[in-house]
Amino acid sequence: MQKRKVERELFMYLFGIIILSALLFSACEKEHPKSELLPDVTTDLTVDYTKADILPAKPCDSMSSFKADDIIQLGAAEIPAQGSTPGFCKVRGMLDPEIAFEVNLPEKWNGRFYMIGNGGHAGQALDDPMQVPQVKEAVEKGFAIALTNTGHDAQKEPGASFVMSNPQKAVDYAYRAVHLTAVTAKAITADYYETPVKYSYWNSCSNGGRQGLIEAQRFPEDFDGIIANAPWVDQTGFSIGAIWNQKALSGVTITAEKMAVVAERVMAKCDQIDGLKDGLIDDPRKCDFDPVRDVPVCEEGKERADCLTMAQLEAIAKVYQGPVSNGENIFPGFMPGSEAVMPGLFGGPSQSGWMGLIISAQPGFPSADFGLAQDTMRYLVHNPPKPDYDPMTFDFDKDIHMLDAWSRIADAKNPDLSDFKKHGGKLLMTYGWSDPVLQPLMGVNYYEKALEVNGPDTRDFFRLFMIPGMSHCSGGECPDQYDPISAISTGVKRGWRLKR
User: Fold this and answer.
1) Would residue 500 count as lying in a domain?
2) pTM score, two decimals?
């Protein structure tokens, strides 16, 4: 029972990070000058998506009789206005076999459809309190907003164990649920207002970023604009990396105090590589940091607060390095700066971003990253599932291809976006260089491959912005806030005139 409780807490920890930063507007902890990553959203070039003047064409309760393929259950209820939130029609249903979905239809609609995604292995309740603010803000701005649990209830089937009850749920989680929800919710929206959806947008982070990329790759006509923040591009590669880190760290104990020493040395070494001492590492790829060389080593048998043992430093070096198979790096490690001391989630103490995520916060229990990888390996990579599989037995020289089948289903690595481009879609991807949950080079590597495959005009429809100092989706020491919805709305309608 205790282990299951801890695993659930780890899930909620990661989900909390993802949801907090998937709001329509996101901000970082520290004030910095206005970022030039995105256009000035106050200019007259910006699309005014808040103009909402389309009224419903029928009563809300009539939507419970709406018919469409795959709908096996449907209900509708009028939600009265409350405070700044106008009244809206909440339509909830179930798509075959167990895909719960919801679409919220404001009393005055701006003609646009908006959808948010899921964190981790998904399964969040539609009324999860962490998602309510996103629904509220979208409705206030006139959007019809949809969401889904991707086909399972995480309270009843935690982690990736949902495949035990029905193997179809693996495909639903990977991509089918989001696609069917988008198609069905847009049809419901068009029927309610008797007006076609003019523009469709996706905005989400982490696994939700993966879902957005999958949509662009597999179902390019579902959305006109996609915001994929810190996308889990390579779920299988991440799993291999998390196992690598767990193995590297399993023989040592590294406290938050010790990681603070490492963080201080990283910043001292690399803060000024861009010529500016500002507490940010502009591009950590230029940071030549080696913990074995650059961090004080404790004398044998004389461990102190301001040094680390050689065993600790060698383990940390492996986390920066990333997994190796037959002498070659097969997946990127974490970047210098990801270990930085950051404000804790939900008001917790400030500590290294690695604590609890890469380094276990509680002896005897997995880190959050390893917990995700362990569930992925047991229930999704193995088909049929092997709930007792021990990822610590994974052989990096022999076993990497066991993940190939699941990779073809769930990974968002296909760089061919030609159909999305042909549709006229716009894709905006962001990543924090200091992300301690997902390796930022996942995003960089994918973007560079997309540039190669889609040609020199790729930047006309697909842009990546790396944010120095930002943690997973938001937080950390990073540029000031930006408005992604204005950016993607303007990009879809008028194209982008970005400063760089």
Assistant:
1) no
2) 0.90
Question: Can you give the CATH number for the domain in which 39 is found?
Answer: 3.40.50.1820
Q: What is the mean pLDDT of residues 369-396?
A: 98
Q: Quick one: 38 and 141 in the same domain?
A: yes
Spell out the SS3 assignment of the chain. Answer: CHHHHHHHHHHHHHHHHHHHCCCCCECCCCCCCCCCCCCCCCCCCCCCCCCCCECCCCCHHHHHHCCCCCEEEEEEEEECCECCECCEEEEEEEECCCEEEEEEEECCECCEEEECCCCCCCCCCCCCCCCHHHHHHHHHCCCEEEEECCCCCCCCCCCCHHHHCCCHHHHHHHHHHHHHHHHHHHHHHHHHHCCCCCEEEEEEECHHHHHHHHHHHHCCCCCCEEEEECCCCCHHHHHHHHHHHHHHHCCCCCCHHHHHHHHHHHHHHHHHHHCCCCCCCCCHHHCCCCHHHHCCECECCECCCCCECHHHHHHHHHHHHCCEECCEECCCCCCCCCCCEECCHHHCCCEECCECCCECCCCCCCCHHHHHHHHHHHHHHCCCCCCCCCHHHCCCCCCHHHHHHHHHHHCCCCCCCHHHHHHCCEEEEEEECCCCCCCCHHHHHHHHHHHHHHCHHHHHCEEEEEECCECCCCCECCCCCECHHHHHHHHHHHCCCCCC
Report if residue 10 sits inside a domain.
no
pLDDT above 70 covers a percentage of the chain that reads 88
pLDDT tens for each residue of 52-93: 999 999 999 999 999 999 999 999 999 999 999 999 999 999
Q: What's the pLDDT tens digit per position in 131-171?
A: 899 899 999 999 999 999 999 999 999 999 999 999 999 99
pLDDT at position 445 over 70: yes
**Domain span holding position 373:** 236-408
Q: Are residues 154 and 98 part of one domain?
A: yes
Within-domain flag for 4: no
